[in-house]
Amino acid sequence: MLWTEPAGVTPGKTRGSTHFSLIRFNETAYSEIRRFIVISNKGQYSQCIPIQTYRGQGTRKHGIVVEDHSLIYTGDEDDEPPELLPGERITKQPLRVEPTGSETLESASRVNFGKVYTVEHNVKVLDIGVVCPQHIYLLVNYFTDALTSV
User: Fold this and answer.
1) What are the residue boundaries of the DUF6590 domain, all occurrences included (predicted)?
2) How many domains does the chain contain in total?
């Protein structure tokens, strides 16, 4: 989906992108296509966790809580997950997404179980696929662990 959020105090310093807009009150917003896993459908909105590549850095990006992340990939049952990036220390098992069309996730895609976003149902979205049934228990356990750990 198209995701827009405040750009922060120093726009452009951390994102290296041209996806900035000047909005009301002379503030800057940042927009990008963002991918999510729907955790809970609440009727008018869903609670979701983000999938990001962190500009191709994976969990090597400074400030990332590595323990809250797992590799996530699109593929068939026989497909192997992509390799971790050199220097990554992810310990969680990868999650496989069964694609519903031709969209795929980049090999540096990581799911962050520690952040929950609310996505309203009145926005345009593109269905990429579903977490394979064999990995649902991992999704639930990793999400629960991230939200209850101190």
Assistant:
1) 1-138
2) 2
Specify whether 73 is located in the same domain as 124.
yes
HSE on the CB side for 147, CA within 13 Å?
A: 13
pLDDT in tens, 94-104: 999 999 999 99
pLDDT at 87 over 80: yes
Q: Find the domain containing 112 and state its range.
A: 35-148
How many Å apart are CA 54 and CA 9, to the nearest integer?
Answer: 19
Residues 106 and 135 in one domain: yes
Measured CA to CA, the distance from residue 47 to residue 20 in angstroms comes to: 26
86 in the same domain as 18: no
